[in-house]
Structures are given as C-alpha cells and as structure tokens.
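User: I've been trying to design a sequence by hand for this structure and keep getting stuck. Would you show me what you'd pick, starting by listing the structure so we're on the same page?

Assistant: Good idea, let's start from the same input. This is the structure you sent:
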C-alpha cells in the first residue's frame, strides 16, 4: 500500500508541474526536414580547356558537398551557399553529384549528367619538301591542333616523330623508293584527323663541273630564299610576293659559271644592300668586295654534293653568309665558301643551302637562264590543218589548209619567221609569198607587197607567263599579213605598229600561234609553226 501511495503522489506532482508550464513550448524537434529545391547553375567553357563552373542552390541548406565524378574514391569539395566551384575535365561524359546538407544533418542530392567535348582538328595540310636527295621535311598545319605525329613510311613498325604546331619534322631515307608519309593532327579533342602523301625518293642526280656552266638567277617565286632551323624549313624568314617586288634588284642578280671553272657575279647597278654593308636594307649600289669585281673560281665535289667558290667577295645569293657565321663587315669576307647543292634531273634548277652556324640554314633555289625556245627560224608546218580560221581556238571549220592547199600555198609554207636571241624579228619571204585581193593580188603566189614584204625593222617580246608574242614594227607579222588585234586589214597602208599573238609551245620545236582578229570578234586565225 505504501508503494502505491508513493506512486500516486509522484504522478500528481508531475501533472502539477506540467500545468504550471503550459505557456513554455519547446520547438527543438518541430518541423525538422532535409534541404529542398536543390539545383545548380552550370557554366561549361567553350575554349577547349574542359573547365566547368557550378553554383549550387537549395532551401534550408547550410553547406554543399560536390563530387565531380571523374575519379574513384573522390573527396568531395565543400562549398558554402552562394559560392561556386570549378573543375577541369578531360573529354568525356560524367555525372556530377551535389549533396546539400542541413543544420540537422539531413541531406538532399542532385545528380547532373554533363558531356565534355572539344573542337577536333580540321583543315589539315602538310608541306612536304625533298630538301636534299634523301632528306625530307614535313611542315604540317591544321586548325585546333597542338601536336602532330609524322610517320615517314620507311618501317611498318616505326615510331612517329612528334612535333608541336609550327615545327618541322625531318627524316633521311636510306634508299630510293616511293614512301607514304602520314601526318596525324591532335588537339584537345580525342578526335584526330590524318593526311597522307606519297613521295618519290630518287637516286642523287650525279653532276659534273660542266653541268653548272651557264647563268643562274634566284627563282622569282615565294620561298626561293629564306632561313630556318632545318633544311626545308624557312620559317624564320622567307621571300614572299611582296619581297619579290621589293627586292627586284636582288632577284635579277646573275651568278655566272664559266666553262673553265671561272665564276662571276653580275649585280648590275643595284643589288640588295644591308646594314652591315653600310646600307639600309634596300636596293643600292653594290659594295666591295661583294660587287662582282674580284676574280673567282668554282669547284664541285659530286661525292659530297658540295660547290666551293674561291675568291674574296665571291658568293651566291647571300653576301653575308659564310661557313663560319654571318659577316658583320665587308672587310671580313673569306677567301672561299662551300655550299651544299643538288641539281634537278634536267639540271636547270639548283637547290642549295649554307649552314652559317649550328642550326642556322640559309636556303636558295636557283634556276638556269635558258634561251627561250622561241629563238630560231620558224615556218608553217607543211601539213593539213596547220593554217585555218574558225569561231574558237581549235576550230578551223571556216577554212583550213588541206592537201591541195599545201601545194597551192607552197610560197607561203616556205616563208621564214625569224626570232633572234637579241629580240630582233624578221620575215624572210623570198621572191614570192601568198598575196590577196586587199593587197592588190589575186589570192595566189606573187611578189611580196610592202610593208608586208619583210623590209621592216622589227622586234619581239615573248611573255612566257602570259603566253603571248608581241611583234613591233610596221608590216611585221606571223603567217597572216591581214590579221591584226583590231580586225582584218582592208589596205596595206593600214598596217599597225604592233600585233600581239597568243603562243603555246607544243614542244621546243613546235609552236601553236593564235590571233583573234578584233577583240571579242570570235574570229580566230590559227597556225602551227615548226622550227628549222
């Protein structure tokens, strides 16, 4: 009974205490919940760095843990509300896990899938140069590429030569043959692109001293003169189109190899003069001893493909270049210079280089001045179709010389059109040629009629690049006396002072000549000439 009594008293005491504190409510465990509305703003860079920046947000959050999802057993990054986090990814697909934590320790999660992709390389090209017999250089270029793997195709199991953008890969083959060069361009993207080109490596062109005999000039083309860290690489400086124009006084310099081993430099009144010579890197009067005034000779070693000039001030293309460095004063000119050279198969092109110091290669492309194939005596080909007219080049449907015409026009076919090496031009018609009604003739063989009788003093200009021959001299013409650029003559007295013909060489002894008699007239007279 005593125990029951005590329990009743205790219960009543608790009720009394509770009744006294009805207005003091505890909220310590009321409305406890995890963070809600978890989200994140993402910024994925487009600069191929793989950088992702995110800013997480949520309601009821005290902090975030971010798992970037690109490594195993990752330690999350802790981020306070309102802060951002950045991470750099490789290319690929990832799941980012964001854990939002509340003050009570309850959490909510957001899983976000992202895909990281980089811009692949494009527009891959490669400049491949057979620089010196068996040596090849490859200069690749591509958009969005940082490195290139170059395979030279000499060994099926070869390891590539890897170069950075802007660099040159070189390789020397052991033997002649055809090789497929493969270039693989790589960038930030896992996607790569490839380029292939087959090169033919030939046995060296054997040369003798006599093969150099003649007058050589620098090729008037971009890249024919330059310097770089390797053979075939002129990335430090290279003659460009503007340079060809600015250095015309240099492009026309002549390097003359004589039959007795003599060597001369013909610079004319001006050449390119640099500061070390007292100039201002511009055209100016040649400076001794590099002015061509000294006597010099040359020798050639076929075993080493080297050409040696002997004579103070003798040089090819680069006056300051020597085998022991670059000159700082004309007075320091050496007595000899040795160049590495290689000749083309026809021996009319010479590629050469001079290593002035370790890893400094000056490189030149020279061409031999060859008399234009036009020089000589030409006549109308004694064959059907060699002379005619029509509405287009190649079409002589309006009139064409046939077998009977060859007989009837014998006095025309034997006419000679003579192009001199000194740019002189003359027509030798003999005692008869073909004369027509507008000349007072009767479309038959007869004595030549002035001024188209070969008596005129005339000259010619052959423009190889334009494919034209300009004949200057009243009464001078090729094959057709009445044909001019403004129409066909109605009287001998109307002969112009010059006529321009289109000319194409079928070979060195055969020439196709066309004149449209009147610009836009659609009347094309056409002739096939052969050299005596």
């Amino acid at each position: 009974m005593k125990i029951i009594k005590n329990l009743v008293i205790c219960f009543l005491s608790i009720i009394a205490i509770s009744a006294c504190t009805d207005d003091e409510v505890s909220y310590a465990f009321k409305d406890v919940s995890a963070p809600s509305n978890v989200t994140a703003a993402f910024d994925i860079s487009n600069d191929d760095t793989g950088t992702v920046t995110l800013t997480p947000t949520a309601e009821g959050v005290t902090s975030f843990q971010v798992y970037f999802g690109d490594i195993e057993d990752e330690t999350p990054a802790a981020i306070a509300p309102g802060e951002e986090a950045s991470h750099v990814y490789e290319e690929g697909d990832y799941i980012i896990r964001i854990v939002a934590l509340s003050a009570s320790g309850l959490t909510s999660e957001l899983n976000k899938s992202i895909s990281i992709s980089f811009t692949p390389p494009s527009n891959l090209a490669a400049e491949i140069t057979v620089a010196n017999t068996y040596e090849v250089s490859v200069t690749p270029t591509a958009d969005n590429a940082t490195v290139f793997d170059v395979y030279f195709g000499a060994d099926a199991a070869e390891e590539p030569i890897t170069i950075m953008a802007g660099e040159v890969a070189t390789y020397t083959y052991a033997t002649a043959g055809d090789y497929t060069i493969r270039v693989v361009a790589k960038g930030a993207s896992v996607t790569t692109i490839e380029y292939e080109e087959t090169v033919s490596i030939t046995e060296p062109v054997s040369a003798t001293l006599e093969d150099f005999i003649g007058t050589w000039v620098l090729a008037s083309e971009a890249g024919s003169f330059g310097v770089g860290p390797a053979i075939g690489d002129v990335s430090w400086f290279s003659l460009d189109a503007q340079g060809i124009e600015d250095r015309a006084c240099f492009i026309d310099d002549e390097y003359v190899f004589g039959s007795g081993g003599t060597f001369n430099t013909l610079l004319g009144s001006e050449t390119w003069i640099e500061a070390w010579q007292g100039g201002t890197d511009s055209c100016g009067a040649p400076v001794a001893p590099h002015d061509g005034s000294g006597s010099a000779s040359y020798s050639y070693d076929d075993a080493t493909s080297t050409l040696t000039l002997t004579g103070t001030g003798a040089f090819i293309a680069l006056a300051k270049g020597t085998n022991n460095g670059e000159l700082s004063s004309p007075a320091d000119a050496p007595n000899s210079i040795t160049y590495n050279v290689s000749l083309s198969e026809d021996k009319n092109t010479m590629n050469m280089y001079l290593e002035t110091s370790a890893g400094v290669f000056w490189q030149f492309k020279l061409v031999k001045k060859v008399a234009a194939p036009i020089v000589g005596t030409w006549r109308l080909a004694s064959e059907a179709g060699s002379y005619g007219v029509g509405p287009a080049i190649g079409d002589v449907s309006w009139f064409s010389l046939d077998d009977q015409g060859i007989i009837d026009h014998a006095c025309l076919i034997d006419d000679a059109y003579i192009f001199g090496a000194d740019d002189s031009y003359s027509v030798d018609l003999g005692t008869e040629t073909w004369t027509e009604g507008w000349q007072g003739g009767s479309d038959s063989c007869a004595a030549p009629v002035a001024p188209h009788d070969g008596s005129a003093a005339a000259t010619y200009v052959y423009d190889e690049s334009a494919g034209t021959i300009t004949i200057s001299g009243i009464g001078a013409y090729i094959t057709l006396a009445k044909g001019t650029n403004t129409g066909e003559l109605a009287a001998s007295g109307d002969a112009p002072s010059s006529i321009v013909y289109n000319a194409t060489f079928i070979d060195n002894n055969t020439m196709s000549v066309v004149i449209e008699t009147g610009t836009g007239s659609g009347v094309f007279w056409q002739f096939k000439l052969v050299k005596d």
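That's my pick for every position. To get oriented when you compare it with your attempt: The radius of gyration is 43 Å. Residues 1-30 have pLDDT under 50 and may be disordered.
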